[in-house]
């Protein structure tokens, strides 16, 4: 069944039918489409456009369709233009011509707009819940493994931190990701239903009722904007891209950590794969796939920005292309978060390997500089002195704390016996504002 056609003399070309069809994509919106239709028909009864018996018949038919889809008796398949024509066609089969009254004072333009907004509200709440699980997973793994490790800049050993503190950096990133999604949900929380094609309707409908019935904060203000707005999808795809960037960075670090050169962590067999040729290989494919799929989500963001960049108001068929890229990104983000949760939960942290790594790279050199500054040496001079100490250590193949006092004094008379305690790795994190590295900061 078509939802249009009265002014056409010829049937649509078969190629055009396939080209125009979006049912294979937007059938995913069936719940929201039916919920939106139920709210709409209730409103039509409330304002006396439909009789009570008509309203009851249509609602019962829609609820029956929903139930049959949910329990598998009704398959989302067939030669339908979109989910809207599928639902209306199935309703017509069940209740007869009264089904034709459902679409009064509504267009597919505002119908799909409200469907998509409801879908996003439902699905983003689930993504946020997954982010919460990953946050707690990182916190737990860090708390169970609060071992000293080197922190890096430029992938070079820089200063001592703890494994827990490193993971907590990703907790902060994910908390920002969550805020971005919550902000996007707040901005989109306006119902476009009742905007019709672009300019409302001459019927006295009640948009406040349908807005409240569907759980929106309020109706949208401008009909033209309502049916052509996809800002919220851009904003969420942007947030998804940032989430994926964070997951990709964490993936890269764990990939590095589980190499034989680092051995900071050992991945579980559950989230690793092998080689068809090299029997010794244990590959971090779970993390490499997260890293790779990040580009896929970036592509969706660029896709939708490009679709919308030159569209005049109001609705244009180009907008049909918004769903495929959004659904794909949603699915990608969901599975990547779930896989990362599994990776973090099951990976083993190797305390001894991290402790051994601390002795490489002179990562207490900055603390020697701080020590000299406390002794009255200007910072730039202290920096120069410690740089020469490091050069000397490289020549001798020794750590700074392994030099004897006479050797250290040859670089500065300000250095005393208390330096050894000051630059001991177990003491460094107890000094100054470094103590926050060891504190529970939420």
Automatic annotation (TrEMBL):
GO cellular component: cytosol
Class in the EC hierarchy, top level: lyase
Gene3D superfamilies: Fumarase/aspartase (C-terminal domain), Fumarase/aspartase (Central domain), Fumarase/aspartase (N-terminal domain)
GO BP of this protein: L-arginine biosynthetic process via ornithine
SUPFAM superfamilies noted in UniProt: L-aspartase-like (SSF48557)
Places the protein is found: Cytoplasm
Ranges for domain Fumarate lyase N-terminal: 6-299
Entries under InterPro entries matching the protein: Arg_succ_lyase_C (IPR029419), Argininosuccinate_lyase (IPR009049), Fumarase/histidase_N (IPR024083), Fumarate_lyase_CS (IPR020557), Fumarate_lyase_fam (IPR000362), Fumarate_lyase_N (IPR022761), L-Aspartase-like (IPR008948)
EC number: 4.3.2.1
This protein's UniProt keywords: Amino-acid biosynthesis, Arginine biosynthesis, Cytoplasm, Lyase
Pfam families xref list: ASL_C2, Lyase_1
Annotated catalysed reactions: 2-(N(omega)-L-arginino)succinate = fumarate + L-arginine
Domain of life: Bacteria
Argininosuccinate lyase C-terminal domain sequence ranges: 362-429
Example of a GO MF term: argininosuccinate lyase activity
Pathway note: Amino-acid biosynthesis; L-arginine biosynthesis; L-arginine from L-ornithine and carbamoyl phosphate: step 3/3
Family: Belongs to the lyase 1 family. Argininosuccinate lyase subfamily.
Record protein name field: Argininosuccinate lyase
């Amino acid at each position: 069944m078509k939802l249009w056609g009265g002014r056409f003399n010829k049937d649509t070309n078969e190629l055009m039918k396939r080209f125009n069809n979006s049912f294979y994509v937007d059938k995913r919106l069936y719940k929201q489409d039916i919920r939106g239709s139920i709210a709409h028909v209730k409103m039509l009864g409330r304002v006396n456009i439909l009789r009570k018996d008509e309203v009851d018949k249509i609602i019962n038919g829609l609820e029956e369709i929903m139930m049959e889809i949910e329990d598998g008796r009704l398959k989302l398949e067939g030669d339908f233009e979109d989910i809207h024509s599928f639902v209306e066609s199935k309703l017509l089969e069940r209740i007869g011509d009264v089904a034709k009254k459902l679409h009064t004072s509504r267009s597919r333009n505002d119908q799909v707009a409200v469907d998509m907004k409801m879908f996003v509200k439902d699905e983003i709440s689930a993504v946020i819940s997954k982010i919460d699980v990953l946050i707690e997973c990182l916190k737990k793994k860090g708390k169970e493994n609060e071992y000293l490790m080197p922190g890096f800049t430029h992938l070079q050993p820089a200063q001592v931190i703890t494994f827990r503190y490193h993971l907590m950096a990703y907790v902060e990133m994910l908390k920002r990701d969550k805020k971005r999604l919550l902000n996007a949900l707040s901005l989109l929380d306006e119902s476009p239903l009742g905007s019709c094609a672009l300019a409302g309707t001459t019927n006295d409908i009640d948009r406040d009722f349908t807005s409240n019935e569907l759980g929106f904060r309020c109706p949208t203000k401008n009909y033209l904007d309502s049916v052509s707005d996809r800002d919220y999808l851009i904003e969420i795809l942007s947030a998804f891209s940032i989430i994926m960037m964070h997951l990709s960075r964490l993936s890269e670090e764990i990939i590095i950590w589980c190499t034989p050169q680092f051995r900071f962590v050992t991945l579980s067999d559950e989230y690793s794969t092998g080689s068809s040729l090299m029997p010794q290989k244990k590959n971090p494919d779970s993390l490499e796939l997260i890293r790779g799929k990040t580009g896929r989500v970036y592509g969706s963001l660029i896709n939708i920005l490009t679709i919308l960049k030159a569209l005049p108001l109001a609705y244009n068929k180009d907008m049909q292309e918004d769903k495929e890229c959004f659904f794909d990104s949603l699915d990608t983000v969901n599975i990547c978060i779930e896989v990362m949760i599994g990776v973090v939960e099951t990976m083993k942290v190797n305390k001894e390997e991290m402790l051994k790594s601390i002795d490489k790279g002179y990562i207490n050199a900055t603390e020697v500089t701080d020590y000299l500054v406390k002794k009255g040496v200007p910072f730039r001079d202290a920096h120069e002195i410690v740089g020469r100490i490091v050069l000397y250590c490289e020549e001798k193949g020794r750590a700074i704390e392994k030099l004897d006092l006479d050797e250290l004094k040859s670089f500065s008379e300000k250095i005393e016996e208390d330096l050894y305690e000051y630059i001991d790795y177990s003491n460094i994190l107890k000094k100054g504002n470094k103590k926050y590295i060891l504190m529970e900061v939420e």
